[in-house]
Amino acid sequence: MRKWLGLALVVALVAAPAVAQALRGKVAVVLDVGGRGDLSFNDMGFKGTDQAAEDFGLEMVEVQSATAADYLPNLRNLARTREYDLIICVGFLLGDALAQAAEEFPNQKFAIIDSVVDAPNVMSIVFRENEMSALIGALAAMAAAHHGYPKAGVVLGIEIPVLYHFEAGFRFGMDWGNKKYAAVTGRPANVELLYTYTGTFSNIALGKAATEAMLAQGAVGVYNVAGPLGIGDLEAITEYHRNKGTKSGPPYYFGVDANQDWMGKGMHGLASGMKRVDVGCYMAVESVVRGTFKGGVVSLGLKEKGVGISRYQDLLEFIEFGVKAGALKAEDIAETILNWQANRATLPDWIWAAIDELEAGILNGTIVVPTADTVAEMQAVRALYTLGAP
Amino acid sequence: MGMGAEGGAKPGPDGYFLRAERITKVYSDGTVAVRDVTLELRPGEIVGLLGENGAGKTTLTKVLSGLLPPTRGRVVSPRGPVRFASPREALDFGIGMVHQHFALVGTFTAVENVALSHERPLTPLKLDATRAKLEALMAESGLKVPLDVPVEKLAVGEQQRVEILKVLSQDVDLLILDEPTSVLTPLEVDELFKLLRRLRDEGKAIVLITHKLREVGAITDRVVVLRKGAVVGDVSTAAVTREELAQLMVGKAVGTRAERAVELSTDEIPAHGSHGHSERGPGVLHVEGLSVAGTTKPIAVHDLTFDVYGGEIFGIAGVEGNGQTELVEALTGLRPALKGTATIHGKNILGLDPRQIYKLGVAHIPEDRWVLGLVLPFTLAENAILGVHRWDQFRGPLSVLRWGKINAHVRALMERFEIQATGPNAPAKSLSGGNQQKLIVGRELAKDPAIVIASQPTRGLDVGAAQYIRDTLVEMRDRGRAILLVSADLDEVLALSDRVAIMYEGRFMAVARPEELDREKIGMLMGGVGVKG
Amino acid sequence: MTGTGARPGDRLLRGVHRTLTGLHPAVESVLAAILGLLVGAVLMYIWGYDPWRAYWALLKGAFGGDYEIASSIARGVPLILTGLTFSICLRAGMFNIGAEGQMYVGAAASICVAYFSLPHPWHLVVGILFAAAAGVLWSLGPALLKLTRGVSEVISTIMFNWISRFLVFYLVAYVLVDPRQAQRTVRIPLSARFPILVPGTDLSAAVYLAVGFALFVYVLLWHTAVGYEVRAAGLNPTAARYGGISIKRTMVLSFALGGVAAGLAGAATTMGLPPTYAIISGLPELMNLGFDGMAVAMVGRNHPIGILFAALFFGGLNAGGRVMQFYGANPVPLEMVRVVMGAIVLAMAIPELARVLPAVAGAARGLVRTLSPKARKEAA
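^ inputs. structure came back:
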């Protein structure tokens, strides 16, 4: 793929020399207070931009923010240098700061993940997280019904509209899974939802605490929708297994953003709702290099491969990602794959086939997953798919 | 040479357990606390160590128990000289001390406290063994304490018993008790004495530090009297009268003035009594039936009634800790009274706060100038307005302090009271003790009070500063003000006062003109022995 | 014996007018800063970064021009106020850890101005008053607990911080929420914002409020009878009582004044910091400003004027630290920047910490007293 892109670059250089001359040779990634090391959202933004910079021969600079008051100054500091072809804001929280900076620096190209900033020099990249969350929700509900667990859990971060996409999709998916289970087995399924907005994207301990509480109430697993908090979620699940003396099976961990199935040597990660922030960042850099950059909203869903549910080939790619980040040892790769396969085998094939069916339905438009961007819309979805947790 | 953990050295053929030989202790500031003291302690004997405040009793026992090294002299056991590097070594040798302030952990039970005292670094507490030992000890000694209650919940007497058990559990042969009765009720004192006699009969050597003559008579076999660090008497209790002891303790006013001056060296205080000044003015302070609770005792001041008149110095003498502090605090608004009345010019002062009392004409020279009288990090100027900082002359609109006027006021004070300092902005703690005290006196007298309550006004001061303060008080008296003088310095009280009260355990043993009291009588009264006639 | 009442003040005595080294405080601070910079340089060198280039970036980013200086000042504005909260109470002999929570409620209160309209300066003034009032109300909880029940202010202010945190979480998510932007509250309208002083930077007129309040506190503490009482009570409560000063009064007063400062810090952030002019879910703009204020107070030696300089220094470190991340060929990542900043701040706080630590021990004893049933009885 990299070679192909390199070729594309050559073609681009030949085809549009004027654009190529305008390149300054540097791109910047600005991260929010969550920072690096989450093996998820922020690391993916870094990964995608880094990959693009390498492929297109650019220099990449990464700027983290100590507090929210640093967002706007960080953007200004970078834009003032006039050295950057593109400044990518990884994260919804940077939206307000970017709106201001885009106005102050109209000649600077920006991109932002997860937020819509209405300015001609900003490419707003958003994801249809509701689609992949529906797949995870369906899987969680069917897994719970299959193993006789009464609940499935979601640990969320700060209550922001992006997270409503996840919650709405997950609710729809669970409802779909409950119905599917009843239809296939002839036994009714009433798996209920447990969800918590922890109010943080950085306090890992809160993720662990929330997960422990959900497991105590009989959750078959927990879907992490709070970036780094997943580390805490997985810790709670791992401890639960250790105390029970089990190695695979429920409770499961459902990763987010990246493919997190490999974490903890793949023992408990069943599937991840992948939101390919790296794909979005790569795409933005590529558009600048090719001279096709333009402001406006770019929406990425299952169809654009911007989101998805993790499968075997994704596992291999992200194992490499984990090894690079130092979170997984190279000698553990084989064991990780075996663990993951064993864990997946704790569910019958018909469930996996049902997930494929749901995905196909979403892709061909026969199934429409609801979403929510405001409190009112979220409440409407909650009313529609109550699942014991309005 | 340390004679560490051999423990329980038995008395030698001479029959003594421990002998202090020509012990002298000089503190680093030059104070000679103990002077050439030789003392023998024998098994089966209770020795009373008698003396006024500062006579050197506590220092001597600290040397014996290894808390302080002697400057000169040595401590000898029948097996040769001993030297203890720490109280631990002294304890291992068989010497235990019960201090006035208990060394107990309040939230621990008796068992835990005693186990803690046996603890060595990195060894676990042996709670079961300790409990067994304590139970045996309690049965043996008749000393009963609840073992499983946090000691802070126990009465003071019980806490003391825990402290004694703690020491006894170390198998000591010599038990030293520092003023053990000062915190006890009479009933508890009787219990304690019973216990001490029993321990003596078992063959322990016991040293009892006290200033109470009655106790000496009641419990000791032998009494050693200390005055100014030296032994002035070492006699069998049976062979001495209370009068003789009182004389030894307080020091006899011997011979002529000149001779006495030599004896007291620089401490000579010219008499200021009522010579040529016998006219006393109207009553200023009237106290009736006043009772005040103490910090450790339920009642520190018992039903006191007295008056202080304009133009007189009313002195209160007595060993410290007999209720003087509580009395002064109650009269100055720092401590609530239990009952009774106190008025200034007929106006009640009990229950008022210090500022209201000051407004009625009371100036207070507190006994502890560092804790009460001054804010040490504050400047001279800031200290000079403590309590009067809301005077109109010091405040402008919006309560803004007029530092110019304040500094002028301070300079005037510095001049009038001869305060040596670099200026109004010098930190108070950079001043010498004498200048600090002059600052307080100056500040208080600037209030133009009707009565000055002066508590230990010359303590710790050099001769010149002390004399200056005394002269100032006399001058105030001569100008018709009332002075209530509380001092542990007997010479000072006798020299300055027009009338003297001797305070003992919260009561006045006597109120008289100084010339009506001889020193023997005063010594008896201070020791709690009533005098007829 | 006069009891133990005098002890905490007694321990505060050591070196109040004297510095750790006996040098002038400013000289001592500069020496401490150099020591901190050296430690930071060694750390960076060990981890393979170029200390000289990094410090050059720090200096340029902090004070390299009008834009940089304005950014540094802007970053220091709320820290002046939260630093004052801590210092006022320390001067009164108490450890008020509550600036954080008082600031949250102050910020939330200021948001309320979005629900009505007024002409420009008045709308802003009303918001400031709201924030100050909320800060005071929140500070009175711990003050009254200490007064009536003897509860250690260390414990109660920390507890109030947590209550405040979750209360404001709730307010942001459900009460003050912007119906179209659920991640934050409604925004402060233009008429209630502090005007930006230097266009293109974060520096708003809130700096006048902060500096003005610091000067006010200085005058109050050192030039009025009320402030005199507060300082006397803080240094030696027993002597203060002897001097007719009501300790309870000075306590409540200093807590309330600290509450005002913390509330204003909240307002300075919501009404004076672009671009959001609202509270975001999770409070990322406010988080830790109260605690950082304690460090500022330490570096500023708990003196209002010292705090002004310390806050500027902190603002500069933060503003310059942002630049260290992308300056030069081998930029220093934020994690390392923060380690270096920590070393510098710690070194600069040491002289004051050494002075105040005995008082910390006093506060710890207060804490123990709160926890011990016997002491509670006595206090009652």
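The first strand of chain B starts at residue 18 and ends at 26. Residues 1-12, 253-268 of chain B have pLDDT under 50 and may be disordered.
thumbs up if we can close this ticket
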